[in-house]
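2024-03-11 09:14:02 INFO worker-7 job=invfold-0412 stage=load source=structure_tokens
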């Protein structure tokens, strides 16, 4: 290393050097330049006159400030010896920096390699190694391709610019630092900077394209589609598979060309000082204009392609009235954008012509002005005029064809074109219910609201504080040849709830590894104490039916299993508590990753952040297994991240007594032509299909994907991409296939879309004359105040009107007219057998008022007997909890069902106390469903109790239903009874017995109704 002090240069030596000029080597273009070495010491008059002459020669005599600046750059002020600062270069420590950089790089590489290794092991444990390696290779290929292409394109462009500007921009020059001349060579900084910029943008685009691997996978494996859009006549696959990739590549090229153009401009600016010092009369350079012209031409071509592609998203743009291309866009805007693309291509040709011929500013300005002028006229002025003065005065007539496109394609995108429409009279009479023919439906009406049942289960079935019931599901099972609707809840373990004294590595990783069992109770039964009537409950598992047996109650994979555990170790695993002792077990499944030898154990410990425990544990052997990613949502997202999953997985018991999770998966898109966008979860989409059902073994963690909609082009393409991942729906075991159901997420978004797009008349659609909305019910806010909220879809085991007399498991969603509370229809999603996936919509007559859920809620609140009872319960250290109001179509009428729970303020466990039933213009209630039916329908509503039912204990605090008048009374007897009841009502009112008076009034109303019915028959 050479060490030199600036003080070593004395005044004498400095003055003897004088002013010298040394010739530089010729540039690649044949030019050479000179570096001016200024004299150190006082500036002579000769140099001043020389600078003055040069300044005059280049026309700067009128700008004295520029002349002074240039003189100062070449003639420093005189300095004395005591003003010179001794600068000693530090010792070189470059090798240390390289060592640190290499260590950091090695750590990153090893960490990433370890993550790849663990992921490969996990996919292999599930049997999907081919899926992982395909995704890995595609990601790596995209990263490397766009990394190298970006670096190559930018570096070549920078190299050409360096050659073009070498004679000026990169010429060495002298600058002053601390009043001392320092020779500065821009090439020493700019050329490394070019590599840095190229590398940074290469990494950026490499990672960006790598994250978009799904689009490229769909593009490379796309299946053929024949349906074409009505505007561009492009097949559907072009928008779903090809256009996303074209957009990404277009944005990439646009960014690269913009960077090159900016670099050319910067290089041109760097040449100005040198051209000024070399007495160049013109501040412009032919080579500068040539470089800028070439870069501008490339940018214009990239913009032309981007403009051409920008026409297609107009197919799914949402407007105020409808979505898709409008009259103005189809006839004026889109052709204008195509003209802009052609204008940009012409401008690029003009820019290239300028690069090789004139090299002037005029052609560049012309090249930029042409597309701007075409854009302003064709895209802004003309469409605005047409829309304001031609379309708006005749909007319905002009837009009718495009509204039809929007209706047809939206219905297709959301699966509404296959809906079967039926009429439903919704009669008010009791006879329309046809109670005797619909006993199976009445016996399976769900009285347990899942929120209330979840709170109850947490109090009576968790047994220990570290157990939890994260969800309650509704399903159907067969008992003694009859299908019953039941509610299931998995008992999962939550290690976060372990006592603080038990929170250690052995307990959390080796002992408390799994949940245990589940509860199953009938949906419509409860004990005299208001508790659920269980079919399966407790620990160890107790079953009260021969049809369900649990052979593998352990739940190693679930919704709360968020931690990694080690199984098949020397430590016995806690299975379930039993009295004062605990029962233990050992994992016998095939799930997870085998620990293996010392090296694999160390790698697993590093990956799992368990280096301080796992490598040194004597309990964990080479045959032990580690279960990672046990949360079922994390599992399916890890295996198939390109699918969208429902938020409500549900537990199923197969015929062998094993537990499985079923989860609905969807394919979605936001690029479906002419379809309206809707919000589903966190995604804004305009196409959705429930194409896949996922089955996860709760014990082994195996995952299977079954295709239920092979006509979906997206799932067909994914299946071509991952042939080992998907199976046909027919391959699903029959005992699991019988439990698939119509997903709530799908029917909710279909209901929102159908509310607007149920009409296929463009005129009615445009005028918004017949808009439906999902029915609302009364909810409860966090401040315990009543509020209105959309009703949740609910599962019902029922006989569909107009179908064969058999029960089906359907998902129901009622509708009301927009901004009104009366019902207008209801939608049913079928879930059984060959009818799975079909949608039915029952339309109510528009000539009669059919009460909706909010109106029934209001009638319950106004009931003279129920209202004071609710008030009384809310004042005695408890509160009334109203369950989900169900609207059940039965026969040709509707039955409204609402359970009422009583919850103590000191206990979160609600108890079912009342069942409220209603039909049009009548409300009944009781402490059980049968009692409520008798109160509402009299003797016709009674049903024989089930053989195992025990008598219901009477709640003395509950209102007593009035006796229903026998239907056999003649007219005169009914008249006498009605008169007596009215007199009793007046007497009770005068005595202040308002509750009893309300009961007597309700009884009087029913007597009058019976009198009207009997009188009509006679």
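2024-03-11 09:14:09 INFO worker-7 stage=emit residues=1018
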């Amino acid at each position: 290393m050479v060490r030199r002090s600036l003080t070593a240069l004395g005044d004498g030596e400095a003055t003897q050097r004088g002013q010298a000029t040394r010739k530089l080597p010729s540039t690649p273009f044949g030019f050479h330049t000179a570096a001016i070495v200024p004299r150190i010491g006082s500036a002579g008059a000769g140099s001043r006159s020389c600078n003055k002459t040069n300044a005059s020669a280049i026309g700067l005599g009128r700008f004295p400030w520029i002349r002074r600046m240039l003189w100062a750059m070449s003639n420093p002020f005189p300095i004395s010896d005591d003003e010179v600062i001794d600068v000693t270069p530090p010792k070189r420590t470059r090798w240390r920096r390289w060592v640190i950089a290499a260590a950091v790089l090695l750590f990153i590489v090893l960490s990433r390699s370890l993550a790849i290794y663990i992921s490969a092991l996990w996919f292999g444990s599930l049997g999907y190694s081919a899926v992982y390696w395909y995704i890995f290779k595609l990601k790596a290929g995209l990263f490397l391709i766009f990394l190298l292409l970006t670096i190559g394109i930018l570096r070549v462009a920078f190299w050409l610019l360096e050659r073009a500007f070498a004679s000026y921009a990169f010429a060495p020059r002298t600058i002053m630092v601390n009043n001392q001349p320092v020779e500065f060579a821009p090439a020493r900084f700019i050329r490394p900077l070019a590599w840095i910029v190229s590398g940074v943008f290469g990494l950026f685009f490499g990672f960006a394209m790598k994250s978009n691997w799904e689009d490229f996978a769909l593009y490379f494996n796309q299946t053929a589609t024949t349906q074409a859009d009505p505007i561009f006549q492009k097949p559907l696959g072009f928008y779903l598979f090809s256009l996303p990739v074209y957009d990404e590549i277009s944005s990439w090229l646009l960014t690269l060309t913009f960077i090159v153009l900016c670099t050319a401009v910067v290089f041109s600016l760097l040449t100005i000082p040198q051209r000024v010092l070399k007495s160049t009369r013109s501040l412009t350079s032919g080579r500068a204009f040539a470089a800028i012209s070439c870069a501008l031409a490339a940018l214009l071509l990239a913009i032309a392609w981007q403009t051409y592609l920008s026409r297609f998203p107009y197919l799914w743009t949402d407007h105020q009235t409808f979505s898709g291309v409008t009259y103005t866009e189809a006839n004026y805007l889109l052709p204008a954008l195509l003209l802009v693309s052609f204008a940009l291509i012409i401008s690029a040709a003009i820019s290239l012509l300028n690069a090789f011929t004139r090299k002037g500013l005029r052609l560049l300005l012309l090249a930029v002005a042409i597309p701007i002028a075409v854009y302003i006229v064709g895209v802004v002025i003309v469409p605005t005029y047409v829309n304001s003065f031609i379309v708006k005065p005749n909007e319905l007539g002009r837009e009718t064809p495009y509204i039809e496109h929007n209706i047809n394609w939206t219905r297709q995108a959301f699966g509404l074109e296959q809906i079967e429409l039926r009429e439903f009279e919704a009669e008010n009479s009791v006879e329309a219910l046809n109670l005797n023919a619909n006993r199976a439906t009445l016996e399976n009406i769900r009285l347990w609201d899942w929120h209330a049942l979840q709170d109850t289960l947490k109090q009576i079935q968790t047994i220990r504080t570290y157990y939890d019931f994260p969800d309650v599901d509704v399903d159907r099972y067969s008992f003694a040849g009859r299908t019953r609707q039941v509610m299931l809840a998995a008992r999962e373990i939550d290690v976060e709830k372990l006592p603080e004294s038990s929170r250690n590595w052995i307990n959390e990783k080796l002992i408390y590894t799994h949940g245990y069992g589940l509860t199953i109770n009938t949906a419509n039964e409860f004990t005299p104490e208001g508790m659920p009537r269980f079919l399966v409950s407790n620990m160890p598992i107790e079953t009260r039916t021969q049809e369900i047996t649990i052979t593998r109650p352990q739940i190693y994979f679930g919704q709360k299993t968020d931690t990694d555990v080690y199984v098949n170790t020397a430590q016995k695993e806690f299975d379930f508590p039993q009295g004062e002792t605990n029962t233990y077990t050992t994992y016998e499944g095939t799930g997870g990753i085998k620990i293996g030898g010392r090296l694999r154990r160390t790698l697993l410990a590093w990956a799992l952040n368990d280096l301080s425990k796992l490598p040194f544990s004597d309990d964990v052997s080479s045959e032990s297994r580690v279960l990672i990613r046990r949360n079922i949502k994390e599992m399916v997202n890890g295996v198939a991240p390109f699918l969208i999953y429902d938020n409500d997985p549900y537990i199923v018991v197969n015929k062998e007594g094993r537990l499985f999770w079923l989860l609905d998966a969807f394919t979605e898109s936001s690029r479906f032509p002419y379809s309206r966008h809707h919000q589903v979860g966190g995604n804004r989409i305009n196409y959705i299909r429930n194409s896949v059902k996922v089955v996860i073994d709760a014990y082994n963690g195996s995952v299977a994907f079954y295709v239920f909609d092979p006509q979906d082009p997206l799932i067909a393409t994914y299946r071509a991409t991952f042939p080992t991942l998907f199976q046909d729906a027919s391959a699903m075991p029959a005992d699991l296939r019988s439990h698939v159901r119509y997903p709530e997420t799908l029917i909710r978004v279909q209901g929102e879309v159908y509310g607007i797009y149920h009409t296929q008349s463009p005129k009615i659609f445009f005028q918004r004359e017949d808009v439906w909305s999902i029915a609302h019910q009364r909810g409860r806010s966090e401040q315990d105040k009543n509020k209105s909220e959309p009703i949740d879809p609910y599962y019902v085991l029922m006989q569909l009107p107009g179908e064969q007399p058999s029960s089906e498991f359907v998902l129901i969603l009622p509708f009301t007219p927009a901004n009104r509370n009366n019902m207008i229809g209801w939608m049913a999603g079928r879930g059984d057998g060959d009818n799975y996936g079909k949608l039915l919509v029952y339309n109510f007559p528009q000539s009669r008022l059919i009460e909706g859920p909010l109106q029934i809620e209001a009638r319950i609140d106004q009931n003279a007997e129920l209202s004071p009872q609710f008030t009384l319960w809310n004042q005695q250290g408890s509160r009334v909890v109203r369950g989900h109001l169900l609207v059940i179509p039965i026969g040709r009428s509707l039955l409204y069902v609402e359970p009422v729970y009583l919850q103590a303020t000191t206990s979160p466990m609600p108890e079912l106390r009342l069942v409220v039933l209603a039909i049009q213009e009548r409300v009944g209630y009781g402490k059980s469903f049968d009692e409520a039916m008798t109160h509402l329908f009299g003797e016709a509503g009674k049903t024989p109790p089930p053989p195992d039912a025990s008598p219901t204990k009477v709640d003395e605090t509950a209102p007593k239903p009035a006796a229903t008048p026998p239907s056999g009374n003649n007219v005169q007897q009914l008249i006498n009874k009605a008169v007596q009841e009215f007199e009793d009502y007046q007497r009770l009112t005068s005595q202040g017995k308002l509750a009893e008076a309300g009961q007597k009034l309700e009884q009087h109303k029913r007597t009058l109704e019976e009198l009207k019915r009997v009188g009509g028959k006679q």
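2024-03-11 09:14:09 INFO worker-7 stage=report msg="The chain has 26 helices and 39 strands."
2024-03-11 09:14:10 INFO worker-7 job finished
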